[in-house]
Specification:
Elements (H helix, E strand, L loop, with lengths): L2 H8 L2 E5 L10 E5 L11 E7 L2 H5 L7 H6 L10 H20 L6 E5 L2 E6 L2 H17 L4 E7 L2 E7 L2
Antiparallel strand pairs: 1-2, 3-5, 3-6, 4-5, 6-7
């Protein structure tokens, strides 16, 4: 399934939250919008994915107290891979929100540990992609991403 088809599917949904803060990842859910036909979209699309979340949630990576401290995540007496992953996703959501909140021409769809960012304005998408990747790297969230520009696919990884 190519990126444009995935975006067509998810642009027919909106986030609904049972809290006042619509960026609250844990309590937000996707719900269908009206049953209108999907529109063809021609623009630039950026895809970003957090590395290692699958292995983390499957218990293939052991999380220690030092991991929580390194990311400045709070925990009480116990901690788990799932708790760490949830906090990592909240951090990822903040990075996405920071990079896109002032740019109204950019659309964002976050699906767990990945996100699609798209717009008709290619320069805007490239600048948002750059900001997301740098902020993720500086925050200790290792990501990979790809850029689709009207028929050209550009893939890149940022790992430290």
């Amino acid at each position: 399934m190519d990126v444009i088809k995935i975006i067509k599917i998810f642009t027919n949904y909106r986030f609904c939250s049972d809290t006042a803060n619509s960026t609250d990842l844990v309590r937000s859910t996707l719900v269908p919008k009206s049953r209108k036909k999907l529109k063809e979209y021609s623009g630039t699309v950026f895809f970003v994915d957090i590395l290692g979340v699958g292995a983390l949630t499957q218990g293939k990576i052991k999380i220690t107290q030092e991991d929580f401290i390194a990311h400045r995540f709070r925990f009480k007496e116990r901690f788990s891979e799932h708790q760490f992953c949830a906090k990592l996703l909240v951090k990822f959501r903040r990075i996405l929100t920071t990079a896109t909140q002032e740019r109204k021409a950019v659309k964002v769809a976050q699906l767990s540990d990945c996100a699609f960012i798209w717009s008709d304005n290619a320069d805007l998408v490239v600048n948002v992609a750059r900001e997301i990747m740098w902020n993720a790297l500086f925050s200790g969230v290792l990501c990979r991403g790809g850029l689709h520009f009207r028929g050209h696919n550009i893939k890149f990884n940022f790992c430290s």
